[in-house]
């Protein structure tokens, strides 16, 4: 269905060259104009959630009140926390995260309202309640998944109502570097939405179109995000660089990178973090991460390697004519930044992508219900019928 316009999706739109806009505003503008946390250099995800929902930036006072409201909504039940803590240690964090979301589903305001028989025109209001709850709870869910997987037995701070979502998440995971708070703000802002056709947002839209509640829809979306061609590419991209480093150490040439890439391609594997279904230029989100690194992170071997890959890999991929976009996407660089701050559990990276994507997916579901969009049910065709159609020329 590449290139086929088949969805109404209100909150964002992707341009093949200029990248994503949220409510018509590009990331440069949002990063400059959206309210930032006190003492921070980056916009807060709360402000971006407000923008996605309403189409306008909140002022400083509104974002403060909104932050307080989200904090009130963020509580997890003991059952949910216990469930996550008791999941097998080796289970992938994305699986735990998705199960965690499902375990909150009995609290769905939408599901209760639907079963009480509220009129259709009120569906969006109950979807909004669930959407705000989910955006607030995912911070806590992610922290519980992280701590129960990697920080077992450690005493860690609980949520702090004076902190924004990003700072809270970083602090609850046991990190205290204020520059990491800022990276997390940038991270959660730039991953929030990528129009309606991404595997995750489209999945949420499709599931919710059956009037499955927002918890069911978001959890399904996370199962799509967990795929290596989608959100899991962020862990794969860092592993790609670390494997290269293991082999070549700190001294390598452009040729070494080129040979390494060709070797992977010859095994019919993909180069994670490169290519895109829609983008035809470097993903602006990747550039924002590089700019953050330039200002805040002292150059190290991995950052040098990341930059050199950016110079070498597109030239190699461009020679393989079937690859439509040889440029890096957001996943190429995010892991290197997280690793710099000590977050060295690659398996967890896609959970952070998922936390961020809640903002876009949840905002768009509110609009889908406000527009009363119908159940999504495209036609399909069997191979025999397809062959018949082709041979008859119709
Ligand atoms: N490495 C190797 N082969 C590639 C790559 C890549 N990075 N990108 C595209 N191709 C191949 C692709 O597998 C396909 O091969 P085949 O016909 O044999 O199936 C061919 O090139 C044509 O694909 P495109 O039309 O260029 O890309 P498509 O829209 O099908 O897929 C991606 C888009 C993003 C799935 C693809 O570029 C890819 O697999 N990239 C690596 C994984 C990745 O970084 N995913 C993250 C996407 C962003 N995100 O955050 O979700
Ligand atoms: C995303 O952010 O979801 C990815 O770039 C994938 C996409 O846009 O299809």
From TrEMBL:
Gene Ontology BP, a term: tricarboxylic acid cycle
Q: Name one GO cellular component term.
A: mitochondrial matrix
Task: Provide any one GO MF term from the record.
Answer: acyltransferase activity, acyl groups converted into alkyl on transfer
- What keywords does the record list, in alphabetical order? Transferase
Pfam families from the xrefs? Citrate_synt (PF00285)
Entry annotated with the keyword Metal-binding: no
UniProt-listed InterPro entries: Citrate_synth-like_lrg_a-sub, Citrate_synth-like_sm_a-sub, Citrate_synthase, Citrate_synthase_AS, Citrate_synthase_sf
Keyword Transferase belongs to the record: yes
Which protein family is it in?
Belongs to the citrate synthase family.
Q: NCBIfam families attached here?
A: PRK09569.1 (NF007128)
What protein name does the entry list?
Citrate synthase
Which organism does this sequence originate in? Stylonychia lemnae
Lineage summary: Eukaryota, Sar, Alveolata, Ciliophora, Intramacronucleata
